[in-house]
Amino acid sequence: MIFTATQIAGILNGEVDGDENVEVSKLAKIEEGTKGALTFLSNPKYTSYIYSTAASITIVNKSFIPESEITTTLIRVEDAYKAFSQLLEYYNSVKMNKTGIEQPSFISSSASYPEDIYLGAFSYVGDNVVLGKNAKIFPNVYIGDNVTIGDNVVIYAGAKIYSETVIGNDCVIHSGVIIGADGFGFSPDETGAYAKVPQTGNVIIGHNVDVGAGTTIDRATLGSTVIKDGVKLDNQIQIAHNVEIGEHTAIAAQTGIAGSTKIGKFCLIGGQVGIAGHLVIGDKVRIQAQSGIGRNIKSGEAIQGSPALGYSDYNKSYVHFKNLSKIVDKIHKLEKKIESNE
Questions:
Q1: Given a cut of 70, is residue 342 above it in pLDDT?
Q2: Separation CA 241–CA 279 (nearest Å)
Q3: Domains and CATH numbers, the chain
Q4: Active-site residue list
Q5: Model pLDDT for residues 93-140, shown as the tens digit of each residue
Q6: Which residues pair with 245 in a beta bridge?
Q7: 28, 38, 108, 341: least CB-packed within 10 angstroms?
Q8: CA of 317: how far to CAs of 216, 295, 306, 332, in Å?
Q9: Cβ neighbours of residue 315 closer than 8 Å, sequence gap 6 or more
């Protein structure tokens, strides 16, 4: 897509300072700008780059005054950072403005969907599926029987949505996500061999939820695995059967949550955290990266370590952890002194 400085200024309610007809077709950081690129300047420590950047257009604050000659065309706005973010949103909306059903694809005769749907090639939509308004289903997506998907949902290429799943409005499901696969349910018999426990529940995802690439959310054994409104899940997270995650909790990559654990709202969970099953984690809990959680956590706690300790306790203890060999040496010396005195 190609935009002129005049068009961009119109989108941002900005003012052009330079060539109104200069065109851009790509975005770049100011220090890496090339001809045909659009960039922005908001952080003062990057100001020096505006005099050397080859970007064709640069968005700046209205208060910016050049101290030497510049070659880039300026678009002056009240807040350059917000304006650039606004432009990114506009760019994405234009890029995502796809409609129609590509072929080959399959839609069951019992599925229902609006006219403004986009369904990419090689996608499959099963029996009794309900797709909401403005749904964007990219190529190679599988949607199983009896799935309900809300309005303005985007499902990127290669995602798999198993049967009975419910997804709310304004959700984004990234590539490689698997929602509704069987939970890890097996029961040993008298010989120690494992028999599979049927997983008959489903997954329910609320509104405005983001699910990162490669993340897996298992169906419940009975009932539902529940991801509530506003939850943000990074890439490559494993959420087991019957887990519940409260509103507006954010979880970083490679975290694993075992079955039937309940996580509160507004929690922040770092990367590579392991959480055991059947636990209750309160609201606004902060868990540092690589922590191992094996106990219930009260609301408001900040914890770290494996097994996890209170965050301040961990930091105090770490001073001793890293000096452990010195401490042991001192103890040995004290023991020798005591023995010699005896």
A1: no
A2: 13
A3: 3-95 (3.40.1390.10), 100-314 (2.160.10.10)
A4: 241
A5: 777 888 899 999 999 999 999 998 999 999 999 999 999 999 999 999
A6: 227, 263
A7: 341
A8: 35, 19, 13, 21
A9: 304
